[in-house]
Write a structure and sequence with these properties.
single chain, mainly alpha, two-stranded antiparallel sheet, 61% helix, 1% strand, disordered C terminus, membrane
Length: 421
């Protein structure tokens, strides 16, 4: 009787994977399902609306005056309204400029108290002017908070003012698709810019192109060049902002919500620990291995939404190669380095001495390896879906089959959830 039970289990696993693969609300599989023709309309859909999910504003419609600064802060309206975020961003800028103008007359020897919000802090006075270096410190939290708001402004501005009009230009009419197009447009811009920036920074470091031994040689790497520190903190601000969007459900949650939250927590775990214990060189490598394939992924999703059939298949095939190399091979290179090259750390640095900037006692090898391995596990799950999507796309292209689905079936969203901006 064991054999039929095993067969049943295999069928259940296969059925579960098929449900994920064909789930239009899955963040990875959904955008690659066959799309409704771009000019098609679903009855009752208003193409002119640029809505957002109702629950994104659930807590925003209560309380004090909608025009007050305190209202914007209390309700986190700045997370969804670009004008609100811009208002908060301009206040420190104006105060900083006023201080620079007035300080020479009233407080000549005092540093500008608003500078840590806008610029990186903790310059090392003993470093050379030709090669300035920065340490980490508590004022980094101010920079982080400011740029969480900055990325909220950038995200919503690009999504609403740039990508949604582009979606309509390319013939997308259903509001849920326009919203998803906006999300992926911002993702392509962000990951493309940060991937290129990370590439530039790594080219200036001894770790250039994953020379992994230099993650450990010369540790602790407690002093950073200004570009590396700025890049690291802005990455941290972005991921904090993305986690805020997920946890507050400022966008309509997808069905793989738990996977995405887990991914964001693991990412922030890596960011926080690597920055705290002075492992920013391997941190830069992790960032790059994530950002570059994510830019290709977002671009492929955009092509699928626009139904550029031949181009999207070519783009997706390139994306699979890029994802395989960056998200799996290079991830394994970093994991192997953590496991086998950890002992390249100088003997004097193999202790827990925060005042000296060293934290890498023997058990820290496992604390570093575990989140990298956890990312690999999440990536392998998505990789399986990616390969199945690629096979399906190639089969459909070879057979000349185009599965035209209704907009409601394709999106998995209900028009009742649409709310005008």
């Amino acid at each position: 009787m064991a054999a039929p039970v095993n067969v049943a289990k295999r069928r259940n696993r296969g059925g579960s994977m098929m449900r994920i693969e064909t789930d239009p609300a899955h963040h990875l599989a959904g955008p690659f399902l066959p799309q409704t023709p771009v000019n098609a309309m679903t009855p009752g859909t208003n193409p002119s609306s640029a809505g957002s999910p109702k629950h994104a504003f659930a807590i925003i419609n209560q309380g004090a005056s909608a025009n007050s600064l305190w209202y914007d802060i209390k309700t986190l309206r700045w997370a969804v309204e670009p004008a609100s975020a811009l208002k908060l961003l301009l206040i420190p800028v104006v105060l900083y400029i006023n201080w620079e103008i007035l300080a020479p007359y009233i407080a000549k020897d005092l540093p500008n108290p608003f500078a840590p919000l806008i610029f990186i802090s903790h310059y090392i006075p003993t470093s050379s002017p030709d090669n300035p270096r920065y340490a980490k410190g508590y004022l980094d939290l101010l920079f982080l908070a400011y740029y969480i708001i900055f990325f909220s402004f950038a995200r919503q501005t690009i999504t609403i003012s740039v990508c949604r009009p582009l979606a309509r230009y390319f013939g997308l009419n259903k509001q849920t698709k326009i919203d998803r197009y906006g999300e992926q447009g911002y993702a392509m811009v962000y990951f493309g810019v940060m991937g290129a920036w990370g590439f530039r920074i790594m080219s200036q470091l001894p770790t250039w192109w994953y020379r992994s031994e230099y993650y450990w040689i010369g540790y602790p790497h407690w002093d950073m060049n200004p570009e590396l520190k700025r890049y690291y903190l802005m990455q941290a601000a972005h991921w904090c902002q993305e986690l805020l969007v997920l946890l507050m459900k400022l966008e309509k949650p997808r069905k793989d919500y738990a996977e995405l939250v887990a991914h964001h927590f693991v990412t922030l775990w890596l960011i926080g620990w690597s920055y705290l214990i002075n492992l920013t060189l391997i941190g830069n490598a992790v960032y790059m291995s994530m950002d570059i394939p994510d830019a290709f992924l977002a671009f492929s999703k955009l092509l699928n939404y626009m139904r550029w059939e031949n181009t999207k298949i070519a783009s997706f095939a390139i994306f699979v190669v890029v994802w395989t190399y960056f998200r799996h091979w290079l991830n394994l290179v970093m994991l192997w380095s953590t496991w086998t090259q950890f002992d390249l750390i100088p003997e004097a640095s193999k202790q827990w001495s925060p005042q000296d900037g060293v934290w890498l006692v023997w058990w820290m090898k496992y604390q570093i390896a575990f989140p990298i391995a956890a990312l690999q596990v999440l990536n392998l799950f998505w990789y399986y879906l990616i390969l199945r999507i690629l096979v399906r796309a190639l089969k459909a292209a070879g057979a000349g089959v185009d599965d035209v689905r209704s907009e409601d079936e394709d999106d998995g969203d209900n028009d009742e959830d649409i709310k005008e901006d």
